[in-house]
Design brief:
The protein is of the alpha/beta class. The protein is built from 14 helices and 12 strands.
Length: about 350
Amino acid sequence: MTDRHQRKLDHIAHCADDRAVFKSHQGLFDDVTLVHNALPEMAMHEIDLTTPLIKSTLAAPLMVTGMTGGPDKAGEINRGIARVCENLGLAFGVGSQRLLTDTPDAVRTYSVRDIAPNLVLFGNLGVNQARDLGPAKVSELMKSIGADYIAIHLNAAMELCQPGADADSDFRGGFDTIGRLVDALDGHVLVKECGCGIGPDQFRRLVELGVPAIDVSGSGGTSWVKVEALRATGQLAELGETFAEWGIPTLAATALASRIGGAQIISSGGVDSGLKAAKALALGASIAGTARPVLQAFLSGGESGATAFLETLVAGLRTAMALTGCRRPNELAERHKLMGPRLQQWLTLDETGP
């Protein structure tokens, strides 16, 4: 087993429990209150959750964001959750395909098209690897699993605390790499963070490059820095513990991005209920993303467990929409909401400048 295969297994193990969850806040979801509508004047059958995502359409504004791939266990997870997502009409992303650059046979653990032919599927690759491979090879990675889009992930904090990641500590050329991919792949590109959030300056530049959808992936859910701290020893372990709570909270990143606009916003990082998904949409997201809770549901209950979790999440979103008088998900952003002091402080960020 290669070191990268073992890393993937370690990631699954550390996400199966709550050791790597943010402790100081949970994405600032508690700082947002949606205002109750006692007379919504609507019937539940009038609620329409269908939502566009880049050039596709989802049955609900929800995405299971990329997690894993490589070991056989990862393949079982990808295939099981992908089938659930297709049945529910949700988008699904695989984990980083970097491993395929030196272990091409592992493609079977990322391949889900045979069981989910109509799934809205996202491939996945780090921006540094995309820079080094170039657009043509990135396109080949997409085609190898039949992905509709490629998610280019940004994970500088994780890389700096990851054992054996020295080769990836050169973060130059990221914007140029993304711009070339957007052009070469006809806009079939999603840019996503890995739990530390995308700030307004970076969001604005990504929009200028023509990126059609951006997952701000804020802090508040899984701390991938903490995951690496659990894997590391010595100085790296200490660094990981120091920066385990680093990042821009999910709803802060979402609200700041929505002020800029120009791209669809995916809000992930701590979304484990339909009410939290509704709060993300109320602050300007088009799609709410979730990962670790789905993984936990699948590991404990298989496809039926993952289905039950996601169906409950959809039901919670529908309930929040009904109780705020919304027939379509985008109407949540138009409804009254209260924001607490921590979130309001974050929202001064774009006013004060760098």
